[in-house]
Inverse folding.
């Protein structure tokens, strides 16, 4: 998803440094507010550019430290496979990884 990729890159490139990651627990509130801000920006940009009036958009943003470990992000919900869908975007650098999932649910 081009919109989410661009927003993740612009919001995270050069902003998250070794200090944030080294003292992860001290910056947990900063990461929380950053993830909310990014999710809101992705949602608004998708609404404006995609013009999906009949869809409810939900965005989930997740951060983690680069620790040479694997991670799997999963979601479950009930939806109509003919109208509902999702898109994902990811970002990583030497310090963190980030994942954004945009869900689009058709509403009548």
């Amino acid at each position: 998803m081009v919109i989410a990729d661009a927003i993740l890159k612009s919001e995270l490139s050069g902003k998250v440094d070794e200090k944030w990651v080294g003292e992860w627990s001290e910056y947990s509130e900063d990461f929380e507010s950053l993830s909310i801000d990014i999710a809101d920006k992705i949602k608004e940009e998708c609404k404006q550019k995609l013009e999906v009036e009949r869809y409810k958009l939900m965005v989930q943003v997740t951060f983690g430290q680069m620790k040479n470990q694997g991670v799997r992000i999963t979601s479950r919900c009930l939806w109509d496979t003919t109208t509902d869908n999702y898109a994902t975007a990811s970002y990583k650098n030497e310090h963190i990884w980030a994942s954004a999932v945009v869900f689009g649910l058709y509403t009548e």
